[in-house]
Amino acid sequence: MGMLPEFAHSLGLSPAEAGYAITAYALGVVIGAPLITILGARLSRRELLLLLLILFCFGNLLSIAMPTPGLVEVARFITGLPHGALFGISALVAASMVERSRRGWAVGRVLSGIAISTLIGAPFSTFAANHFGWRMAYLIIGILGFVTFLGVWRYIPADTPNRKNSPLREVTAIGNTQVLLTLLTAAIGFGGMFAIYTYLTSVLQNVTHVPEWQVMLFMVIWGFGMLAGANIGAWIVDRNLDIAALLALAGSAVVMMAFPILLHNGPALMVDVFLVPAFVNALGPALQTRLMDFAGDAQTLAASLNHSAFNIANALGASLGSVLLAHQLGYGSLGFGGAILSACGLLVYLLAMLVLRRSGQIETRGAID
Description:
By secondary structure, the protein is mostly helical. 80% of the residues lie in helices and 0% in strands.
């Protein structure tokens, strides 16, 4: 997203036309997560991680070579294919390497990677694109992907593949009610964060009227909020998973309701810009760990679909924000819209808890290995 202006200028596109490359990537994430996981059902998790990283590197290098916007969009779609499965399987691998009581901590560490990429990677890629061109930025990202490939090859323990595992078995197992409700919580509950984040720069420039240099400061604070949320949420998960999810959803609704009240107060808004992603991102470890608890034979597919749900939330939140602004409701309405999505996510999670309690299966949760 940060490279969009330079990307659009170099290819002679409007920002709206250039945005289709982002849409293509997101579409790759949603489609690739279940597709790759099902096709790779008989591979070990380490083997699948290595293949996903190869595809990621290939997609970025392909993006550099494509001469026309349409072909670049195809390349971005290919690059997005491994995204969901990569994060989902990484979380499973990390959780399998620690004792059960520390699974939340392990998952939180993996999901911290998303926050760190927002905090460091996004500004760096924007800087590289502005000074050296977007193709050079993708080249650097591809090289870093290869470094990651070498790290996985060297440090991730080899696990035994299940050559008898059936892709159909994964698909069938995903029908568990608790898995579906957990994924629905993610698809709705994360949406509020994106309703605000998508238009945060516009809010800062047009409503809060902060100096140009402070816009980047707000973005960095947002990244720190994501990082704090992933780790604090993981800490709570290891003590009480349901409390972690409920606090994240309820807390995010409250701080989003405060967003329109604080729009004209820069320092106060800065605090809210930290708290919104902190509360929402605290939900990540809870939902990822909950999927491990209930996915049974569909561990890999469920973990991957969690990131498809995350991208659905991205589209849902951004679309809701667009609708609110198109109806002249003002930037403050983004906070109210986001709070509604968090509240709806909370209702879905409460429904999951109610269904589980009535089924009498509260403690019957599976292992991930």
